[in-house]
Amino acid sequence: MILLPENYWEIRNTKNKGRGLFAIKDIPKGIVIGDYIGKIIHPLEAIIDEENFYLMYYHDHAVISPDLEKPGVYLLNHSCIPNAFLYIYKGHTLAFALRQISKGEELTIPYLLSPKDKFCDPCPHICRCENLKCSGTMHLSKEKYDKWRKFGDTRARETKRERIRYGKELPLLTSYPKKISEDYIGEIKRIFNFNSMDQKL
Fold first, then answer.
1. Overall average pLDDT of the 97-112 stretch
2. Count of domains observed in the chain
3. Which CATH number covers residue 128?
4. pTM above 0.70, yes or no
């Protein structure tokens, strides 16, 4: 679900990544873009899901499968140098602007995949962001993944996760934060070294 008003974004086709979400007016730094909403399913069911590329982790025993017919956070393509990021709030995965996103830019996030293992061979998670610092993969290094999980898990515990039911839609929150704190953004930039990689940050 996109929480930004419709006059901030539009869906377009990209050159080599399918559809994407683009800013049609400047989006301020820290603003919450949307919530990753969809049906709650067990990870074992996801193995046979043809759309499992769009699945979002909820916890070790549940993933979120979005409705691809509706605009949503799943439209944000991966980038090694993203202009948006993810924030876990009451179990929900919220996307927010990591820096000011200028009119005309595609909104992107890192997919934060665990380090590549023997089961990802051949690996379909090839990055096509074409940034000069592109790593060529959507997988994180073990060092960055461990730092992200430690930080993300700690921050996620600050708000209580709501109960879910398999086969049901993840219920919307009664209220959403409008903006993510500078403290959180600063820590993300430090962990991923985004300051030295993108002058706009």
1. 97
2. 1
3. 2.170.270.10
4. yes
